[in-house]
Amino acid sequence: MKDKKAKKIVFRSADDMPTMVISIGSQTHNKTGAWRNIRPEIDLGRCLKCGICWKFCPEPSIEIVDEWPVVDYDYCKGCGICAEECPAKCIVMVEEKR
Amino acid sequence: MKKVMMGNHALSYGAMLSRARVISAYPITPQTQVVELLSEMCADGSLDARFIKVESEHSAMASCIGASVAGARTFTATSAQGLALMHEMLHWASGGRHPVVMGNINRSMAPGWSIWTDQNDSLSERDTGWMQYYCSSNQEVLDTVIQAFKVSEALMIPAMVILDAFSLSHTYEVVELPDQAEVDKFLPPFDPEIRLTPKDPHAFGGLTSPEHYFELRYKLEMDMQKAPALIEETGREYEKLFGRRLGLVDPYLCDDAGLILVTSGTAGSTARVAVDALRQAGVKAGNLRIKVLRPFPFEVVRAILRKAAKVAVVDRNISYGAHGIFYQEVKSALYGRPGMPPVFGFIAGLGGRDITVDTFKEVVDHTLGHEAADEAIVWIGVKK
To answer: CA of B64: how far to CAs of B26, B86, B157, B231, in Å?
Structure first.
């Protein structure tokens, strides 16, 4: 599970920073779910628990919890691949209202 | 063991002896034989590596970067248009700090289509953050690949081992193949501190705000500045094991020389024939071959050239609207210090036109015939 409470990391000096461009904190505080215009909603009543949505999600923002898919809306960008690939067609993309 | 081989195969054997684990490449003349032989070595089991066939040089470098992140020693090779197509990925390799080693065969950029040598392909990538070694013999090519892996992996900076098309890539020379066990002593397996593994997940190359990007670049430059000393140190270590010194530059009769010809790549061997002839005629000439262009060996270049009365740089490349690139680099190394010699700049041999002893005779005549160097390019051998 992603650490939802992670704070923004600010390094004080170059020496404190890793050599490689890794884990400098942007992924934890930069919640890319805000980019989403349409959101996937899963009708679990028709879900086959096949895991195809989990496998295809490029982010990956679908987690399997007790065999059922759960969308992580903090990071889901609303690409719709899960809805496209779902064999039971139980995922629908719904317009975000903000 | 001694073996007669072409320069391209010296690159292949260098990668084999370095025990590269992943090779990903796309063929292009005059590089093809480099990866052809490596693919055969992978197929017959003499090299325990994964050979990845890709649809472009961009993908070749991308897959090398991916494999390097996963902790594999990676090698590829290309030329000219292929190198240009890799351009974006070259920044990814250096910026991400992935120590890929690549052979580049200097081939002139199209158009007009040319498969013959000049240096504008690799010099167009001068500022990508890669180390660049310009070689002048097949033996040096093989030795430098092994050394380049050691230096690159210590600093996490990628490197290009560069050789001239045809005058080295397809030319056969006797090459001493170092013993594998000795190479293993010199070059232990690549074992990066951080790697792509499910056990310790990281995001690589992620979004970097103005708060951190500057420092990442500063760190790259600070490590690049460690490279000259490390290249000299590993070059001495290599000499102890294999009897051949690998340095930043390769001076020939420079100590007492009044006139030093500065060259890179195979033009150096021709320059030395010219130097010998000049010495017989009573002109105290010398040749400084600059092997490593990035990092630029400021100190050693300065120390050698300061003793000369005149310096002539022969470039097989051009920065349009400016001058030859080695000329600019040499001038910047000498600028602002007292007592430095004037630097004359010449352009010769673009598009694979031969650089001959006569080329250097013209260079020397011009240099000795002029008191001061002027800023204009002096073209040698162009049909004006």
So the answer is: 12, 11, 13, 23
Task: State which fold the B2-242 domain adopts.
Answer: Rossmann fold (3.40.50)
The predicted-structure confidence for B188-227, as pLDDT tens digits, reads as follows: 999 998 888 888 878 888 888 888 899 999 999 999 999 9
> Nearest Cα to B241, choosing from B133, B148, B141, B146?
B146
What residues are paired with A1 via a beta bridge? none
What Å distances lie between residue B109 and B85, B97, B114, B291, CA to CA?
12, 27, 7, 22
Q: Does B217 touch chain A (CB under 8 A)?
A: no
Range of the domain at A86: 32-95
- Is the residue at A2 inside a domain? no
Residue B214, C-beta contacts closer than 8 angstroms, at least 6 positions apart: none
The reported pTM is 0.91
Q: Verify whether the Cβ–Cβ distance A21 to B206 is below 8 Å.
A: yes
With tokens 């051009």, the residue in question is B318
Split at pLDDT 50, 70, 90, the class of A1 is very low
Task: Closest CB to A27: pick one of B96, B98, B206.
Answer: B206
CATH T-level topology, domain B249-379: Rossmann fold (3.40.50)
Quick check: B209 contacting A, CB < 8 Å?
yes
Q: What is the mean pLDDT of chain B?
A: 97
Determine contact, residues B103/B145, Cβ cutoff 8 Å. yes
3-state class (DSSP) for residue A70: strand
Record: contact A14-B219, CB cut-off 8 A: yes
Interatomic CA distance for residues B305 and B137, integer angstroms: 23
ipTM of the complex: 0.71
